[in-house]
Amino acid sequence: MRDFSYAQATSRADAIALAALPDxxxxxxxxxxxxxxxxxxxxxxxxxxxxxxxGMEGVKALPNGGVRIGALTKLNDAAQxxxxxxxxxxxxxxxxxxxxxxxxxxxxxxxxxxQRVRCPYFRAxxxxxxxxxxxxxxxxxxxxxxxxxxxxxxxxxxxxxHPADPPVALAVLDADFITEDKNGGRRLAARKFNVLPxxxxxxxxxxxxxxxxxxxxxxxxxxxxxxxxxxxxxxxEYATVxxxxxxxxxxxxxxxxRIALGSVAMQPWRLEExxxxxxxxxxxxxxxxxxxxxxxxxxxPLSSNTYKIxxxxxxxxxxxxxxxxx
Amino acid sequence: xxxxxxxxxxxxxxxxxxxxxxxxGDQNQVGQxxxxxxxxxxxxxxxxxxxxxxxxxxxxxxxxxxxADMPRIHADLDKITVPxxxxxxxxxxxDTIVHEGQPVAIVVSESLEAAEAAATIVRVSYERAAFIVPxxxxxxxxxxxxxxxxxxxxxxxxxxxxxxxxxxxxxKAGAAYTQPSRHANPMEPSATIAAWKGDHxxxxxxxxxxxxxxxxxxxxxxxxxxxxxxxxxxxxxxxxAKAFVWPHEILAAMAAKVVRRPxxxxxxxxxxxxxxxxxxxxxHDVRLGAGADGKLLGVSHAATNITGVTxxxxxxxxxxxxxxxxxxxxxxSQRIRRGNITLPTFMRSPWDGPGSWALGSAxxxxxxxxxxxxxxxxxxxxxxxxxxxxKPWSSKKLREAYEEGARRFGWRTRVKGGTRDGxxxxxxxxxxxxxxQARFHSTARVCLKADGTARIESSFCDIGTGxxxxxxxxAAEVLGLDPKxxxxxAGDSDLPYSGPTYGSGTTIxxxxxxxxAALGVRAKLARLTGWPAEDVTMRDARIMRGNEARTIRExxxxxxxxxxxxxxxxxxxxxxxxxxxxSAFPARTFGAIFVExxxxxxxxxxxxxxxxxxxxxxRIINPRTARSQMIGGIxxxxxxxxxxxxxxxxxxxxxxxxxxxxxxxxxxxxxxxxIDVGFVDEFDANSGPLGAKGIxxxxxxxxAAAVGNAVYDAIGLRIRDLPITPEKILAA
Amino acid sequence: xxxxxxxxxxxxxxxxxxxxxAGAAVVPVDSAGAAGxxxxxxxxxxxxxxxxxxxxxxxxxxxxxxxLDMLRxxxxxxxxxxxxxxxxxGACTVLxxxxxxxxxxxxxVAAAGRKVTxxxxxxxxxxxxxxxxxxxxHDAFQCGFCTCGQIMSAxxxxxxxxxxxxxxxxEWMSGNICRCSAYPQIAAAVEAAAREKA
Lengths: 326, 732, 198
Ligand SMILES: Cc1cc2nc3c(=O)[nH]c(=O)nc-3n(C[C@H](O)[C@H](O)[C@H](O)COP(=O)(O)OP(=O)(O)OC[C@H]3O[C@@H](n4cnc5c(N)ncnc54)[C@H](O)[C@@H]3O)c2cc1C
Ligand code: SF4
Ligand code: FES
Ligand code: FES
Description:
The complex is a heterotrimer.
Chain A: E1 5-8, H1 12-19, E2 24-27, H2 33-39, E3 46-49, E4 59-61, E5 67-70, H3 75-80, H4 82-87, H5 89-96, H6 101-104, H7 166-172, E6 176-181, E7 184-189, E8 212-218, E9 225-230, E10 241-250, E11 253-262, E12 269-270, H8 272-278, H9 286-294, H10 307-325
Parallel strand pairs in A: 1-3, 2-3
Antiparallel strand pairs in A: 4-5, 5-8, 6-7, 6-8, 9-10, 10-11, 11-12
Chain B: H1 13-18, E1 33-39, E2 45-51, H2 53-56, E3 61-65, E4 96-97, E5 103-109, H3 112-119, E6 123-128, E7 139-140, E8 156-159, H4 162-168, E9 171-179, E10 191-197, E11 200-205, H5 210-221, E12 228-231, H6 247-259, E13 263-266, H7 269-274, E14 282-290, E15 296-307, H8 319-323, E16 330-338, H9 352-370, H10 374-380, H11 398-409, E17 419-421, E18 424-436, E19 439-440, E20 442-449, E21 454-457, H12 467-479, E22 486-489, H13 506-529, E23 537-539, E24 542-545, E25 548-551, H14 552-559, E26 563-570, E27 578-579, E28 588-600, E29 605-616, H15 623-642, E30 648-649, E31 654-655, E32 675-679, H16 703-715, H17 726-730
Parallel strand pairs in B: 1-13, 11-12, 15-16, 21-22, 29-32
Antiparallel strand pairs in B: 1-5, 2-4, 2-6, 3-5, 7-16, 8-16, 9-14, 10-11, 10-13, 14-15, 17-18, 18-28, 19-27, 20-21, 20-26, 23-24, 24-25, 28-29, 30-31
Helix pairs in contact in B: 9-16, 12-13, 15-16
Chain C: H1 10-20, E1 46-52, E2 55-61, H2 67-74, E3 93-96, E4 99-102, E5 115-117, H3 130-137, H4 147-160, H5 166-172, H6 183-197
Parallel strand pairs in C: 1-5
Antiparallel strand pairs in C: 1-2, 3-4, 3-5
Helix pairs in contact in C: 3-6, 4-6
The structure holds flavin-adenine dinucleotide (FAD), iron/sulfur cluster (SF4) and FE2/S2 (inorganic) cluster (2 copies).
One FE2/S2 (inorganic) cluster sits at the interface of chains C and B.
């Protein structure tokens, strides 16, 4: 861990000014940032602690029927908020299946989508070829251990998956990240917040240096929604594959389905073709399987993760069941 | 009364729940410096240059030690065998690199933060050499000159003609069974604090055997053993990783000598992968031939494990092949593959753990082929005597364990394999548990005071198995005291020599020495009382003969002594340091494990629903601590079956993930409350005076096989490669 | 060139050049040049006031010191353990303003002004906290190395009300690895302590 200097921002404006300084990083829960500095993934000269900024924490109902979650809201608090529980079970479940109880007491919803890949080459304590760690050094996983890597949207420059759970739920809910920086701010779709390697293999998200996530906005409630996380151990482990589903039902007919897969690509992977085909189908009908299969037409396995295609497909199917029963 | 067999609470409970128990890394010395090791990033070659300037520029950094700064190893170390020295290759004695993660420099600093920061910017240049990937290296025979590991058991064993018998057998089963390397990953990373006073060295260390560290340190520096003191009151789990003396311990002592200040070295979790050995990756080729009645006609078990380039560590995984089942034709063999990895080492349930996975799976395959209940197949092939030597067992009540286990689990009335529970398919499996029994030379001292309290002194260490609880029980039984009145003082090499805490050998060995010492004290008390030692008993702080009774206080008061002390020993035939039971009676522990799993075939999920283990392991001194040991073992077996694996990256020549996120260990949510543990009533009169045997490793044997067998029961898929991950389940 | 400005560490750049051209000249380490332009609010050495187990502490620390290292190495409160230093084991669990967190993931400076409770602050002298007693009563440990973290986590778990069933306890106690694997006993201890409190 290299030496850095430290400041506590006392207001949003303060934070935005400080975060824009060169070689400066923002500290929220610290559950990622501290590890990065220890491993040597980043070595900022300055750290701005934003956790003391007032008014950036909590869950609020919006007039349009949606909600806004402050970026500094702790994962546990967001997931257990009555509004989130009742209206967005998929998000509550995705969060509660993340990390551990104590990490979720530190980790913030704003920091969560900014976590970086869990690819072991990227996280290695010593140099390994990895374009995300050292651009141009190659991708160790491409022909190496890639059992848990991408089946969608990868390029030979990076085959990693984004490991976060909550963004998969946020993608299915068509949520937006609300940002601010010294030029104003942006509304960034959760679906496209993380960057596919085809666009930039070295990047993790579209956030600019000095740009702060201040909140998350989610549209109308999705009570018929569910999250399924598949992993070897029952808890405290990243997903091998996850699935988020939100359904609009009319009786047992799907009016609209939204499906996103997690840990299959560098961003939450919406199965758009599947979604199109599911509209108007009856729950439990064979057409559902066919619709899900159609979403995998562009899935491409790596040298050792062919199984993930079948796993993700089965996970999507199962989560449709779970969402219908939610 | 009888304190033996009482489930009394742990004597070290209070210090452990209050945080006052001190582990090596909790110790601090006045004036200490923090040391952080810099590890090689290449798997083979040599260090060509080290630039320490940037590191030294960090405020607080006092030295960056490189090979040239290190004291040379004294010739005395040649007299120490490997093991207990983990490896004779001591880094930083030359520029040679034999594996990634090997220490190449030591940063020493006033603060931990500065040392950590400096270690990341020590610039090491390497001359790389080609390295060997162990898993794909040539299979060779072990070289007896490369360490003593290969001599601890038989590399080849042949009884009858197994190949011919198997070829001619009407029913055959078996295959190749594989398992990955696994790291012990005790929760406490290894730590050493070394402090010199003139020529006297004190080390606070995380160990499983204090005298081994004492002797190695003395030899390294050419000192008498009396010049080295090792202190280790509590060790935060060992599981083999702290059994032998690893180079970092020596480097810490060397660093302290060079900088002339006490040095505190705590390995990072990452360094626990590079600087302490794993259980090696293994391939077992198991072939069974049987008659139509299930009687085994031939057993062949060939095991191959990976090892490092410096010594030939042999994981005797074929031992079960020649010890579990009665058979006239048995062949076992051990081979190795050498590569550039940290030298593998013993890990909890060595030999029998890996071997029972392979053999336990093959037996299930045979039972399926025969259409026979796997428990019946085991009963048919019950080994009344040791199949290897033909000698009678020291004791064995496995038949009772089978019966009791089957009853408690409901084995004979279990649900049909493949029965659905929602999306889960239920499967049940069973397998044999068995572990060879090591015994170690040990000594202890017992001191009885006039106030009816007593003290046990021995250099054993507490790694969580409960010696500080059960040794007082043993002494209390002899001295007629409440175990709470007896304090065990341990964890210091200045105390009487204790054997190690591994090989499931502490209770049987040090426990016997404690009993011997307590009997010595009782005899002295009897002498003071004027009664023949053979006639007396003790109860409620009194010594008794027939109807006569005197209090301890009276007897000692009249004699004018304040306390009575006696030394006790557990000596092995021929003055040996270790044996595997007496030569007349081979010693093993036995048991049967039954598990019920759920398999969600669509999602590739495998979950434990319940387990029953019943064991034949001699006399159980404390059923409470014993139960905990067995549950721990079953969880270890579950980890082995369902998730644990350390992957060696073949292009980089290193362990890929060196953490606890990329390498999964079981967590609380994985383990259901329904883990049922039982022991058959047994007294092993042939292994030692206590009638007890070891239990620390038995529990982790057989479990992986039982789980694999249960998966087959649930979904009809035979998985022969551990761990059983979603990928393999989905392949169905 | 990346348009998303990933922050790549100097160390990695150095390493990368070393991978690409082994033995070539090494890029020198940053000579704190950037630190020269530091805004006044940034501190390279921070005065940290923090209440630990009811006692006020004041320490001058470099900002990179974690709460865990501060407790263990500066204050000798060694009941809180370091098992991984990455948030992957739970051995370092303490209460921060009453909530359980991993002390290895918190900078000491970031805890300034907050209340920290460690295992040393749990018992009332020789009188054990009910959770501590439950751990003894249920034999919920072996080596004891994970135990303080387990107990602090259990105190948090009970306060949060995540003790509705054995399954819920096991899930919410899964952030604490016990390699000795006393899991069923730990869950039983938490269940009993929660019942006692209710
Ligand atoms: C052992 C372990 C297991 C985990 N398991 C899971 C899991 O299963 N699923 C899962 O989803 N996650 C998991 N996580 C990741 C965890 O959820 C994230 O680390 C956490 O959500 C990050 O939030 P934080 O507030 O701690 O971020 P920090 O560490 O504080 O920051 C992370 C990054 O985001 C930036 N940042 C933070 N907040 C803002 C903001 N408001 N605006 C702009 N930039 C900001 C920081 O500068 C930094 O670059 C795990 C983490 C650990 C250590
Ligand atoms: S997959 Fe991406 S993160 Fe992993 S090694 Fe390749 S480039 Fe690096
Ligand atoms: S030391 Fe903090 S979680 Fe492991
Ligand atoms: S008691 Fe040893 S790790 Fe939990």
